[in-house]
Amino acid sequence: MAFQILLNFFLAFIWMFLSNDYSTLAFFKGYFFGGLIIFALRRFFAHRFYLLNVIAVIKLFFIFCSELVKANIAVLKVILSPKLTMRPGIFALETELEKDWEITILANLITLTPGTLVLEVSEDNKILYIHAMDIDDVEQARLDIKNSFEKAIKEVSR
Amino acid sequence: MKTNDLIFQTVTKTAVFIIIIYSLHLFFSGHYTPGGGFIGGLMTASAIVLLLLAFDIKTVVNSLNIDYIKMTATGLLIALLTGVGSFFFDVPFLTHTFSYVDLPVLGKTSLATAVLFDLGVYLVVIGVTMTIIQTIGETE
After folding, report:
1. Which of A102, A121, A130, A157 to mutate to test the interface with B (most CBs of B within 10 A)?
2. Model's pTM, two decimal places?
3. If you ran DSSP here, which 8-state letter would residue B66 be given?
4. Distance separating alpha carbons of residues A155 and B15, to the nearest angstrom
5. Cβ contacts (< 8 Å) between A122 and chain B: which residues?
6. Quick one: how far is CA A1 from the chain centroid?
7. What is the pLDDT of residues A55-74, one digit of tens each?
8. Which of A3, A111, B95, B128 is the most exposed place for a label (fewest CB within 10 A)?
């Protein structure tokens, strides 16, 4: 992915040199045409066309924003409710992600979801220990959300 | 008990670069806007302290092999020499001048000799802060 972006920059600069125009507009023109060429020749690269990864990153960012809003509304509900009916607890979640940054992003997303908080990553980076604000009804729904997060993060690093 | 610092280390690896670039920005903006050598040096030192917190001392010394005492000496020497430089122009000690120079790429830039003095301050602050922290950290 990084190689493709670098190649696209390189093609944009070649376009600027050929057209003898060193403005920002010329750079973007060259970048657009370079992107078209890379898309046409995408079969020759080891990874898929890089714009798909860029779109995946943007999707992840929107998930992040929506979860942030949801989490704060959920906590507000708990604070303002007259009765305390929650049962806190800690559960383990096995993750399939391997790279450091993937696990870091997953942990931060889980911490930002309503009612969950990452406490610890196990020594072999396979299990996340999560504290849930309300353990009975959360468990199943949480696992679903984790799957959606893991999927989104895997899309980025594919 | 040994804990897994994976999340902390990953965030540190990205945050350190942002802190250092911000400290350099503070250092260069000192002439017209708030900032300068002292706060820039403290900010750079804080980035190295963050590295020391996330990784152990050995790793940081292996990757950033700087003799901080020599760094302090260099900074003092630079500050002193900018003061001594005023003698060559027959003006009092530590007089600084500035002028506008047309540089090929940057265009009209004001170059002040106070920046050199500030560089000395910057190096002294980093050197002293890191010397204090490392000597306290290494004593058992």
Report:
1. A121
2. 0.78
3. -
4. 24
5. 4
6. 15
7. 999 998 998 888 888 888 88
8. A3
